[in-house]
Design a protein that fits this description.
Four copies of one chain form a homotetramer. Chain A is an alpha/beta fold. Chain A has one domain: Aldolase class I (TIM Barrel, Alpha-Beta Barrel). Chain A is built from twelve helices and eight strands. In chain A, strands 1-8-7-6-5-4-3-2 form an eight-stranded parallel β-sheet. In chain A, β6, α7 and β7 form a beta-alpha-beta unit. In chain A, α3 packs parallel to α4. Chain A is globular and about 50 Å long. In chain A, 61% of the residues are buried. Chains in contact: A-B, A-D, B-C, C-D. Chains A and B meet through α3, α4 and α5 of A and α3, α4 and α5 of B.
Chain lengths: 305, 305, 305, 305
């Protein structure tokens, strides 16, 4: 059932006009370019899809656009990220109404809680909205690591369809994949760490959610297919090339975290002609021309420009 | 100008019915009891006011009710807590429309950023909505500490009217109060740590935002007035008594953080007959009868029951 | 019994020659100046006493010198700080042999452990060496907070004579002081936070261990005596003055943590003529003349120069 | 030059008698078993080699024994782990005197510092003692991550011969390996994460330092050789088997961190007849018979018993 979400599922970067409005045309360019390259799905309103920067109205625009542009060619997973259960369920209902194929939710955040509340959170979302649900493990943002045993239990119980792992904990990821296998593989496990997808495949990942897949979708698709064929040398070589390309995030100076990472993705998409503007959402600084030139230089070295 | 927000400003605990709906009557009981006890203001939709658990519709209910019940007797500060700027500004506009006297915003959270983005965040909120704005320093929830120099700068520039400090950093708090004094006292500085308000007054705080003030507002009012009169022995004795009372939060077992802390406040308000129900918002467990009995025992020892 | 360790007990800064050797004369100047000012005890080989920078031989030099210079005028507490139990006990035996009046030990650090191991650690030290033992609560260095219930239990059992609290958690400190009182005051509780000693006295502290006491011992002695007499206004005014003086630690630029903090103390002691050199231990950079001049400026404003 | 440290270099678990003394015979059993299995080197006095639990005298015993037992068959790397530079250099001199082939040092810990001090720390150790020096990146213990650019710079400058990475950051590890390659491969980079060695090999690691290599050295040797031959399926299958075996660390209950991890290793070595006793150093609890039986069960399932 959950097999439809395997493979390369990039978290789609949101396009804004220079004035900060949603840029449908650029967004469509990016999605079409990725679908043409052979990606297996699209994840909108992820962390790098500026979900937490977007008002509810903006979130609706993004979901509707993605569903319309994807047009059934690949499934659309939608991030329903918000602080606590009641708010998250509201987003889930909207996403379903607008045509999402699956939902992606993090642990609750801001208020301090334990694993019991997290488990109840996922169960309540599942009860409220009948769509495949992915747990998004991203402690760097929500400051809680999802417990491995809980994830398996929720998979076995049919609450979770999968896990998107951005936990930065490759040891725990290995154990999660092994536990999932023993339990009959209830969960589709995707890694969010685009720099070490080869290692995740070694551990048994069912696919990846690479932010860098917005820039070089064909590379991740080639890597996935090589993995399916057991051609590990190609898996590794593609990864080395892609990891080199990831260095675009080191180009911006004097800015950290989101502004540097997603900023570099937007800068690259502008340099590639996919995005009209690399405008960032407030309060994040938009990268300047000099920084975009530096990013373009890395793209040239990688043969993408 | 900002003097109107000095003194005791409890963060108002939100009342729910046993079914999880907003309980206006209980909410009114609590506010009226606090206003009668002489508090100087009310802070609704703070962390303990379940802001992050409340949908936008629920937030509206709470603000409207608070403004209506307060009826101008004391100012109403409203928490506009959300992840990033655009979402926060939406809440700010609603709060103003519904009659808030001041706004309280945290640093952006979830996405990783630096102090430059935080400063821009506060400036944009101030530009968008013309109401006194308090910065809420609560690293345990947002995982960033507000920079002292930035706060003073925003105070001097008229962006911030004050700071609600729940940073847990009493050393930094002392320096903040001293810096504020030197800058001409642009900021009204309130401490959120109800167990050590006496120390905060020693450091020069302009008031407090004690969650425990929902349970014993008269105590915090007596303490504030003693501080105004330089009667430090009374300040200290009230604090020792209140800190003892705070041990209600140690009664719940097998539950942590929000569920134990706000859970104990709700349990106490039920035991006192102020709240009809001690129902907690999902996904947090509601304290049971045994736990409420344990809390009532502490209240009896403190002479409140 | 433990009353002998109440009051002002500065952590003694270690004096080095310009070549990095132990400077007995400067060290004696500093101790004599503090004893003359009326301090109640001396704590050598604390965090600011460069205990973790000192070889075992150097530690011996420092203890011997302190005991000799103090000459029974005030008790000498000795830090026996090291990673795990067996190493700590070796330091404890040396300290006793060289004449220490009490020992100060942190939780074990480097290897990851829980509270059970920490409790056993303190019990084993106490069994091994018959001297009053203080627990040093300093999570910023050892990355574990000492559990309050454990501390009280160890006090009641006669394992611990006291606690030196540098935990930065004033809420927990208040509860610790209250619990200690209820248990019959087995522990002498000293705060290490020199900027908020007034708040700690409000909470019931039995004294302080102020690094800044090396620079202005008379101020902390006046404050302590005012506290003993219930003169809270003087307690507060001295604190405001001392907190201002503490800003010497903000003078150094481009250096953080230990190098800025203890660096500023050494710079001030050189500016005051107490230390011959402000040399820091490797690998920490020694402050330069310009930085010492900046520190001297703060001292002048405070009337100490 | 540094090629001699490539391959499988297990961190040698220290054997104690039931009374807590060093157990030379058991220690020799373990080393001989690993050398016979074909490991490429031995790392004594690492984190799992109880370096921070060992007195200086005990450290000498361990180094001397390891050098004597290895008898030149494989190189012996020695951990010189202590808080700050002067203390670390003393250990370095002892290690050299006793015949170590290389040294392994962490960043300084306990006192708070920045990257400049860390870099100076490594340079001073290298100046003081002429042996190949490895930087040990273990933020979970020392609470600082070693900067990638600094490591490369120290490699190029001839200060560092290599890096033992236990940082838990596989993304940074990938970039480090790439940077090292570009710089002419000055550093020998070893991973300490025994559960994901296959991923580390994908990233370009020069070998591994697996604690679990004490239990199943032959598995890691087979995996290394398969990697050398480009046989990735074998690399992966061995890893899956070894990761299953690692679950011995989940057997102990009610004990965390070191006591569970190294405790399980010692329990397994006792079950295998390699160690006479599974005694742990104080203050860590020694696993009981029931726990050893649980570990033996896992060993049986893995075919090792």
């Amino acid at each position: 059932m959950t097999n439809k979400f395997r493979g390369v599922v990039p978290p789609v970067v949101t396009a804004l006009t220079a004035e900060g409005e949603f840029d449908y045309a650029s967004f469509a360019n990016n999605i079409n370019r990725m679908v043409d390259a052979g990606v297996d799905g699209l994840f909108v309103l992820g962390s790098s899809g500026e979900v937490v920067f977007s008002t509810d109205a903006r979130r609706r625009e993004i979901i509707s656009a993605a569903v319309e542009i994807a047009a059934g060619r690949v499934p659309v997973l939608v991030g329903i990220i918000d602080t606590e259960t009641a708010r998250v369920i509201e987003h889930a209902k909207v996403a379903k109404e607008l045509g999402a194929d699956a939902l992606v939710a993090t642990a609750p955040f801001y208020a301090l809680q334990g694993q019991a509340e997290i488990e109840r959170h996922f169960r309540l979302i599942h009860e409220a909205v009948d769509l495949p649900l992915f747990a998004y493990d991203i402690p760097v943002c929500v400051h809680t690591k999802l417990d491995r045993n809980m994830l398996i239990r929720l998979g076995v119980d049919g609450v979770l369809a999968g896990v998107k792992d951005s936990s930065g904990d490759d040891v725990s990821f290995r154990f999660l994949c092994q536990d999932n296998e023993r339990a009959g593989h209830p969960l589709t496990i995707l890694t969010g760490h685009e720099v070490v997808v080869d290692g995740a495949y070694m551990s048994g990942a069912d696919g990846c959610v690479p932010g860098l897949g917005n820039i070089d979708p064909a590379g991740y698709v080639r890597q996935w297919r090589a993995f399916q064929e057991g051609d590990w040398e190609t898996v590794r070589k593609e990864q080395d090339r892609l990891s080199d390309l990831m260095r675009i995030v080191f180009v911006p100076q004097g800015i950290q975290g989101y502004g540097a990472g997603v900023g570099a993705f937007k800068g690259a998409l502008k340099a590639l002609g996919v995005f009209e503007s690399n405008r960032m959402p407030e309060p994040v600084r938009t990268l300047n021309e000099e920084e975009i030139a530096g990013i373009a230089e890395v793209l040239k070295q990688a043969g993408l420009l």
